[in-house]
């Protein structure tokens, strides 16, 4: 439907004062788990604008609701969404129901940023024009204005609605991503689709003097039943009072991707879902180069494998990759991490250990210390160490071990790779930047009882990392000088963990592609650098489970006392369940970044989220590299080991390797 019509409809939905105030109070409880709250109050211009006080911001929205300052429910929920977005951390988000009903889209108006030679500043083009130019005698003209404003400035302003930590990463989200396309990952940035109304029409002005208009539309998904929707109140009743009964649709079961990668040359080896794939560059001058592309650390089992654990499949694919390139005599490696937004934490460490088997990865992190976390981690660790319970009620004990995971301080190690002597030594709290935190913690990959995220996965699918337990230590396949990382600043989460291990301990250089059209250094990692995300639904479920375990083990009186704390308030949440959009298995579409990642040897313990680290070289996409990723791989090879160029002004930053 026309975007203006949808926007006008959304603006008529009445404010749910009582429900909104309850929703905000529940979000405040959950936001306590966000590890970066105190640092966001500091002004860090390249990361976020001004000072952001998340809890005060929630209070301000609540006060606006009480004072009647909001005209519609859409405005309330949009302000909540924008507050979370302002943090620029894709581990910290909240997706209200009303914003998912009719998102706005610029159909046919996708744009792309392309340089003439990879180092000259790029221009903006219509993607359709670029694609048509490949098949017809047609010279696309750059876009110079959007809605009568400078095109680059307009796009940069729109990019603020992307939840990435750097302006260059946010800018890159506006354009189609080659790596995402290869594995059929739908990751539409705020240019293609967003919840914020940006007018009914997008008008382009071109360098050749022509112009073109595109109508903005609102996408009305068939899963939403508008039969009884006649006005704002009926809209609220239909879509903002909890899950709708699903309309009858043919379920999609067992859909597996084709074995080929879209837009990529055929790999000589590939994990079944395309998360890891390997290539050779056999052109003249590139015969000694292999490419390991990792567009995702979240593999799944698809066609072409008998494995049932995707982590084990990736481990075997990596081993086979390195064995093959050794036999082929390849001496240089390009690791292509473009588009990688994270996934299974242990795969970051596994991949690093296959590259640098003799280095013990640091991976230090810490939690924010607060009431709910202290109670949960103390009690669940206590229950997990209860030998009597293990003997008398193995079923309950097994559930507790699974619930404890790496929250159990007994399973993990301290910054010096030693066990903690007590809960108090682990928990502290320790004060940094006017907030409370736990001690630095590290995973113990030799401990299958809550030592690392993939521990306790069962005897048939257990995942042992390379170099630990019964998994052998291989020879190092490449020297650090013969490895280069290719990034597009969209790397975050698990990808950020892997990148930091390569940079900090492997001393591997990086080349980053894209970003704003400015001749300046650019960070390779522009996604969140937090090292653990917890979804809000899990936090609610964990709190409820702790009350149940406490009652069973310690009695109703103790459980009642815990129920009077933040744990009880979390377990009793109800409004966010009503007001959340829904996707897949998630009943509450909201998340928090629970673990700060830290640099080894940083006594100040500044979270990596707020540390500026420039790539060693920067290039821009060209039309040739957009059509064929091997062109970009060769650009990276030339820049690292040959006579290739980098964007002027992008090299030599004090934080580069």
Task: Bin the strand percentage.
Answer: 5-15%
Overall average pLDDT: 95
Rg computed from alpha carbons, rounded to a whole number of angstroms: 25 Å
Structural class: alpha+beta
SS summary, helix count? 24
Give helix % range.
25-40%
**Uncertain spans, ≥5 residues at pLDDT below 50?**
248-255
Give a count of the beta strands, DSSP E runs of length 2 or more: 24
CATH architecture of the largest domain: Alpha-Beta Complex
Number of domains: 4
**In the CATH hierarchy, what is the class of the largest domain?**
Alpha Beta
Main beta-sheet annotation: 7 strands, mixed
CATH fold title of the largest domain: 2-enoyl-CoA Hydratase, Chain A, domain 1
Separation of the first and last Cα atoms: 51 Å
Q: What strand order characterises the main sheet? A: 11-12-13-14-20-21-24
CATH superfamily of the largest domain: 2-enoyl-CoA Hydratase, Chain A, domain 1
Principal-axis shape equals: globular
Question: Can you describe this structure?
Answer:
This is Tail specific protease domain-containing protein. One of its GO terms (molecular function) is serine-type peptidase activity. InterPro entries: ClpP/crotonase-like_dom_sf, PDZ_CPAF-rel, S41A_metabolite_peptidase, Tail-specific_protease. The strands form 7 sheets. The protein has a 7-stranded mixed β-sheet with strand order 11-12-13-14-20-21-24, sandwiched between helices. Strands 1, 15, 22 and 23 form a 4-stranded antiparallel β-sheet that branches. The chain has a 4-stranded antiparallel β-sheet with strand order 6-5-8-9, covered by helices on one side. It folds into 4 domains: about 5-105; about 105-220, Pdz3 Domain (Roll); about 270-365 and about 470-530 and about 610-640, Alpha-Beta Complex (2-enoyl-CoA Hydratase, Chain A, domain 1), CATH 3.90.226.10; about 365-440 and about 530-600, no CATH class. It is an alpha+beta fold and about 650 residues long. It is globular, with a radius of gyration of 25 Å. The longest helix is centred in the last third of the chain and has 19 residues, at about 535-555. The model is unreliable at about 250-255 (pLDDT under 50).
């Amino acid at each position: 439907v026309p975007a203006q019509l949808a926007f006008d409809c959304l603006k008529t939905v009445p404010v749910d004062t009582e429900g909104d105030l309850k929703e905000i109070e529940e979000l405040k409880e959950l936001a306590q788990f966000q590890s970066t709250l105190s640092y966001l109050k500091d002004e860090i211009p390249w990361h976020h604008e001004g000072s952001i006080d998340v809890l005060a911001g929630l209070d301000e929205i609540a006060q606006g609701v009480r004072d009647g300052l909001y005209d519609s429910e859409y405005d309330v929920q949009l302000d909540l969404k924008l507050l979370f977005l302002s943090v620029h951390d894709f581990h910290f988000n909240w997706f209200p129901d009303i914003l998912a009903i009719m998102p706005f889209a610029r159909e046919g108006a996708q744009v792309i940023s392309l340089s003439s030679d990879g180092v000259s500043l790029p221009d903006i083009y219509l993607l359709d024009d670029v694609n048509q130019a490949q098949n017809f005698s047609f010279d696309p003209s750059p876009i110079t204005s959007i809605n009568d404003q400078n095109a680059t400035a307009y796009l940069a302003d729109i990019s603020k609605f992307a939840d990435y930590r750097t302006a260059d990463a946010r800018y890159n989200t506006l354009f189609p991503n080659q790596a995402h396309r290869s594995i059929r990952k739908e990751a539409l940035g705020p240019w293609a689709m967003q919840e914020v109304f940006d007018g009914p029409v997008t008008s382009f002005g071109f360098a050749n003097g022509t112009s073109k208009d595109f109508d903005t539309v609102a996408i009305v998904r068939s899963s939403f039943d508008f039969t009884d929707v006649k006005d704002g109140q009926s809209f609220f009743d239909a879509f903002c009072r909890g899950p709708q009964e699903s309309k009858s649709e043919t379920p999609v079961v067992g859909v597996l991707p084709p074995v080929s990668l879209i837009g990529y040359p055929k790999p000589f080896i590939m994990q079944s879902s395309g998360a890891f794939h390997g290539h050779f560059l056999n052109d003249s001058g590139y015969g000694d180069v292999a490419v390991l592309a990792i567009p995702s650390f979240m593999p799944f089992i698809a066609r072409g494998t008998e494995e049932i654990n995707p982590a084990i499949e990736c481990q075997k694919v990596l081993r086979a990759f390195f064995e093959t390139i050794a036999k082929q005599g390849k001496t240089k490696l390009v690791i292509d991490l473009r588009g990688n937004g994270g996934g299974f934490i242990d795969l970051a460490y596994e991949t690093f250990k296959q590259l640098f088997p003799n280095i013990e990865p640091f991976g230090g992190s810490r939690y924010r210390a607060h009431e709910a976390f202290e109670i949960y981690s103390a009690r669940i660790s206590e229950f997990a160490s209860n030998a009597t319970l293990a003997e008398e009620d193995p079923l309950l004990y097994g559930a507790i071990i699974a619930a404890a995971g790496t929250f159990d301080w007994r399973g993990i190690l301290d910054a010096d790779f030693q066990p903690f002597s007590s809960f108090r030594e682990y928990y502290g709290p320790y004060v940094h930047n006017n907030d409370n935190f736990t001690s630095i913690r590290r995973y113990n990959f030799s401990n299958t009882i809550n030592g690392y995220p993939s521990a306790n996965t069962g005897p048939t699918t257990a995942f042992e990392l390379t170099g630990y337990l019964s998994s052998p230590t291989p020879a190092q396949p490449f020297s650090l000088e013969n490895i280069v990382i290719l990034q597009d600043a969209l790397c975050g989460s698990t990808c950020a963990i892997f990148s930091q291990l390569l940079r900090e301990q492997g001393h591997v250089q990086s080349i980053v592609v894209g970003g704003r059209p400015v001749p300046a250094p650019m960070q390779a990692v522009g996604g969140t650098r937090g090292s653990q995300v917890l979804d809000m639904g899990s936090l609610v479920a964990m709190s409820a489970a702790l009350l149940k375990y406490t009652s069973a083990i310690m009695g109703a009186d103790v459980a009642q006392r815990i129920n009077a704390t933040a744990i009880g308030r979390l377990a009793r949440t109800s409004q966010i369940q009503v007001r959340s959009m829904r996707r897949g298995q998630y009943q509450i579409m909201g998340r928090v970044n629970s673990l700060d990642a830290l640099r080894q040897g940083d006594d100040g313990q500044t979270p990596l989220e707020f540390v500026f680290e420039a790539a060693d070289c920067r290039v821009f996409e060209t039309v040739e590299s957009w059509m064929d990723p091997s062109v970009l791989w060769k650009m990276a090879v030339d820049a690292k080991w040959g006579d290739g160029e980098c964007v002027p002004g992008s090299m030599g930053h004090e934080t580069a390797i």
